[in-house]
Design a protein that fits this description.
This protein is an all-alpha fold and 89 residues long. Helix content is 79%, strand content 0%. The longest helix is centred in the C-terminal third of the chain and has 37 residues, at 52-88. It starts with a helix and ends with a helix. This is EexN family lipoprotein.
Length: 89
């Protein structure tokens, strides 16, 4: 009887777990707070201890969005620098 109750409890816990919804790179780029949250999960949080294949599944879009954001910020910085130097002359 104890085993049956334990098994029922385990099945209940497993049935209540939800599927993880992985945001797309576009969603992460549009929402920087969501990007920061997922970076934390992938770098030091709950997904950092996964196997490499599983981690790639969960964190590939986060890495892609991080690179895109860095490129956009670098482009804006270069554009601002060029604009400032052009207007000065």
């Amino acid at each position: 009887m104890r085993r049956f109750i334990s098994l029922c409890g385990l099945l209940t816990v497993c049935a209540c777990q939800q599927q993880v919804s992985i945001p797309t790179a576009k969603q992460l780029i549009a929402d920087r707070s969501l990007l920061t949250e997922w970076q934390g999960k992938c770098d030091t949080g709950e997904y950092s201890q996964l196997s490499p294949a599983r981690k790639a599944e969960f964190c590939a879009t986060t890495q892609e969005a991080t690179i895109s954001v860095a490129q956009m910020q670098a482009g804006k910085k270069d554009s601002d620098f060029f604009k400032a130097n052009t207007l000065r002359k």
